[in-house]
Amino acid sequence: MTIARSICLGFVAVIAIGTFLLTLPWCTETGEWGDLLTALFTSTSAVCVTGLTVTDTGTYFSFLGELVILLLIQIGGLGYMTTTTFLILLIGKKFDFRQKIAIKESFDRPFLQGSRNLVISIIITTFILELAATILLFPTFAADYGLFEGIWLAVFHSVSAWNNAGFSLFPDSLMRYQTSLPVNLIITSLIILGGIGYQVIIEVCFWLVDILRHNKPVHEFSLNFKVVTSTTAVLLVVGTIAVYLTEVNNPSTLASHPFEEQIMLAWFQSVTSRTAGFNSIDIAAMTSSGLFVTICLMFIGASPSGTGGGIKTTTIRILYSSTKAVLQGQEQVIMFKREVPVSLILKAMAVVFGSAMTVVVITLIISLLDGKHEFLAILFEVVSAFATVGLSTGITPQLPQLAKLALIFTMYLGRVGVLLFMAAIIGETRPSRIEYPQENLLVG
Fold first, then answer.
1. Which residues lie across from 338 on neighbouring strands?
2. How many domains are there within the chain?
3. 327 contacts: CB under 8 Å, gap ≥ 6
4. Exposed site from 229, 277, 280, 441, fewest CB < 10 Å?
5. Quick check: 19 and 412 in contact, CB under 8 A?
6. What pTM does this model have?
7. What is the C-alpha to C-alpha distance for residues 308 and 220, in angstroms, rounded to an integer?
């Protein structure tokens, strides 16, 4: 039982438990036993923090069912190993070497030291930010739905946004609040902070502590921090401009709004497309170019150690820098005056290739199983599932059962990661001591 297998099987176990709970009569609004496929799809989507659904969450499930979904989202966002490790610490058991290895693998850390403190910091950060967002969202929801329902709506959407899950208790997601400045700012801030990664947030905290204590030298930001923050900023700006340009003349999305609201809607769509899953415009009414821009943003996704999916911002930045180095005739890939190891470049290439092949194969399978929907809509759903986004053109509930099962596997694969999943299948590998002669071949 390797670490990769522990993580993969752990997610399967949580999904199975969630499926069982969501089929119970107490978890459905009708009080009857729930449909097994619906429960499995919803449980997988919640644990994998995706947000794709085959039914309306707010009307199909009871309060208890919604609570189960919320807990599954929280476990999935934190990660199986993080949650397990926290429970071990909570009951007072020893934090052994295996847990340290698991945390190292889960967060792709180069060292074992500080794993226990990292887990505690993650839990505290999650609780504080979700609580703050709940307090800020409460006045808006309470004004429309009353005190108790307003509290529940604020809690549910705060947890869903922080974990980049995209689950909403409203049938139209957040379209009814598309012009609400507080909801837009709070939700997008949670999505960005949740997707940017715990390590970046922790580094900012260290930096602020050094400044307040007047420590010298002030905390030096890591290469990961610089790459993640700069790439995220570029993607947010470019995404907003791209969504605006592709939808500004579309009366079903942006054209019917004044300029200020158009920018806010484009901003929200740019943020949520990178693995959050909420929508403030009708996705099915978007233009083909707008859907393609969204697909690109979904495929890139969030950042490592965050709650989002996709191939990650660091991966796309490594590929960009590698291409730049080739064009400039350089033999090393340099980022912020630091050389990127060849092993990381190979890993980035493997992630992109594995992810692209997964999307291609699943899209082909669903296209063969379903002959009613357009190819772009099917591709959109598959990328949304793999990148654990949750945005949908509305075709998911209409897909055949086998196609839904394919999407379930896609969501699971996107959450655990292609490389981790393959490592779980292959098992432990040992580096070879054999070296082979080099030989050139034609490329490009």
1. 335
2. 1
3. none
4. 441
5. no
6. 0.90
7. 26
